[in-house]
Every structure is written in structure tokens, then in C-alpha cells.
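User: Design a sequence. Structure:
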């Protein structure tokens, strides 16, 4: 998967904090030895700042980190100094959304649940633009074009040389919703069919039928579960409703979301059967025009 400064910074912070805790060192012990302020160390351990390399090296020595791991951390530091594509859009996305984009870009796999709208990473350009132009898409018309552009940039992970492993659980209603009209709904379904057929090894779209008990698993919320290649990084979640969204890092909450998702996935039609349902819905829309 591509390098993400957001993921690299998170991993550095997590590994440094865990190592300090393993050694039983209080933050004050570190700050006294290295001449750092308590606020500075706290910002480093909580990803608010990236420690300069000339300060990172003595910190790793104090933490008794071996040479191999030091090289790993310095390599991560080089990545963390970079700027992700999402920083171009800092004027229109808050810090939480930008962090989601960075985590998404550096994830090995993402599992999505959506109840109403097509997930952004699967939306065709026409669907994206119609959403941005709607009363619910953007707060300012000036943001419509850059937000649409950013949404389409997220989709590059699907065709990257090391592509994202994406699983999406979509309620059947997502296929039938026509908020931007029949033509765009049909175009979106054709786009979705094309993606599924072009990426059989990395894209798994499952439809939750109206009569499936799985519709009750994650009612009314958009959920992402983000998995990472590094064994040092846990799964994170993103939970979103109509008004706001946030990253879920609490391990118990993530485990519960993972359990609900896994249970629902086991209850729905197969990838092939879901694809046939999508095709059937597209044919029905085509027959009405």
C-alpha cells in the first residue's frame, strides 16, 4: 500500500508511547533526561506534533530501542514528514476528516457498511457531482468542485499498484435510491458493476436484502473498519451519521463494530449473488426509461 504520512505519524507515536509504558517510565523522567517540556512529549505521543529527527534519536536511546527498530522508526519519520494529497483540501475539511483520508490512503483493507447512499469511494463522477450540487452536499457552492475532486482522488486506491482490499456491505435500498434521478442512479449501478468485474481479487460488494436479519446489525449508520499492514497497528473504525462523523479508537467499541460487521457479512448473499442483484436492479431501472 502507498505510504501515508498520517499512518506513519500514528505508528511512531503509538510505538514510542507503548515502549515508554513497557519500561515503566513516567513522562517526567523522559522530559528531565532530554530537556523537553511535558507538553511537547504529550503532543508527540498523541500525534499532535512530529518530533524532529535530532530529538527522536536520543529519545530512542533513552527508551532502549534496538538498532533495527530505530531504523524502522527513522524510515517512518521520513514518511511522516511528507504531505498527503488531502492537505490540499485543508480549507474545506476539518482535522478529523483529513485524518480519515490519511488513514484510508494508508490502509491495507477497508470494510464499509452503508444504509442509504453509495459509499464515496464507489461513487461515479456523475453521482459525486450531483451530491455536491444538492442542498446536502456542501455548505458553500465554492466548495463543490474541490470536494468532488477530493472524493474522486480517494478512489485512486482501488486502482493503485498495491490496491486496497475493499469489502462493502450495502443495504438493498442503496441500489434503489434515486435522489438525483433515474439516469444517475442507473449510471451509478453500471459503474459499480464495472468496478466489481474489473477487480475480482480486491473488491467484494455484498448486498443486504430487505428481508435479511442483517439489516438490523448496524442500523442507520455509516461504518468503516480500517485494517493496516503493520502488526503494530490495530483496526480503527469510522462512524458517521447525517450530522457528523468521528474516528473510533476505543478497542472495545471497535471489537463490537467488528463483531456486528462480521456477523452481518456471514448472513448476506455471496459476492456473485450480490452482483446479480445489482445487475437485476440496473436492468429494472433501464426498463423504466
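Assistant: Done.
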Amino acid at each position: 500500500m502507498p505510504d501515508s504520512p498520517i499512518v506513519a505519524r500514528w505508528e511512531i507515536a503509538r510505538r514510542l508511547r507503548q515502549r515508554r509504558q513497557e519500561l515503566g517510565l513516567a513522562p517526567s523522567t523522559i522530559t528531565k533526561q532530554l530537556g523537553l517540556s511535558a507538553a511537547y512529549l504529550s503532543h508527540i505521543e498523541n500525534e499532535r506534533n512530529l518530533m524532529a529527527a535530532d530529538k527522536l534519536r536520543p529519545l530512542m536511546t533513552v527508551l532502549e530501542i534496538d538498532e533495527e527498530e530505530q531504523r524502522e522508526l527513522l524510515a517512518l519519520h521520513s514518511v511522516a514528514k511528507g504531505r498527503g494529497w488531502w492537505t490540499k483540501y485543508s480549507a474545506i475539511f476539518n482535522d478529523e476528516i483529513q485524518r480519515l483520508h490519511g488513514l484510508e490512503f494508508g490502509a491495507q483493507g477497508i470494510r464499509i457498511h452503508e444504509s442509504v447512499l453509495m459509499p464515496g469511494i464507489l461513487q461515479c463522477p456523475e453521482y459525486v457531482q450531483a451530491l455536491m450540487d444538492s442542498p446536502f452536499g456542501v455548505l458553500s457552492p465554492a466548495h463543490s468542485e474541490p470536494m468532488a475532486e477530493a472524493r474522486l482522488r480517494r478512489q485512486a486506491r482501488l486502482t493503485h499498484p498495491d490496491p486496497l482490499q475493499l469489502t462493502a456491505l450495502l443495504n438493498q435500498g442503496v441500489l434503489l435510491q434515486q435522489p438525483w434521478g433515474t439516469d444517475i442512479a442507473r449510471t451509478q449501478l453500471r459503474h459499480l458493476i464495472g468496478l466489481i468485474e474489473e477487480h475480482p481479487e480486491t473488491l467484494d460488494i455484498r448486498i443486504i436484502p430487505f428481508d435479511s436479519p442483517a439489516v438490523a446489525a448496524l442500523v442507520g449508520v455509516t461504518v468503516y473498519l480500517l485494517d493496516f499492514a503493520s502488526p503494530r497497528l490495530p483496526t480503527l473504525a469510522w462512524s458517521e451519521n447525517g450530522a457528523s462523523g468521528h474516528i473510533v479508537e476505543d478497542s472495545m467499541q471497535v471489537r463490537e463494530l467488528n463483531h456486528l460487521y462480521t456477523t452481518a457479512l456471514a448472513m448476506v448473499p455471496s459476492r456473485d449473488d450480490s452482483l446479480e442483484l445489482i445487475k437485476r436492479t440496473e436492468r429494472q431501472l433501464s426498463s423504466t426509461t
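The chain has a mean pLDDT of 94. Strands lie at 109-114, 165-171, 203-208, 222-227, 236-240, 245-248.
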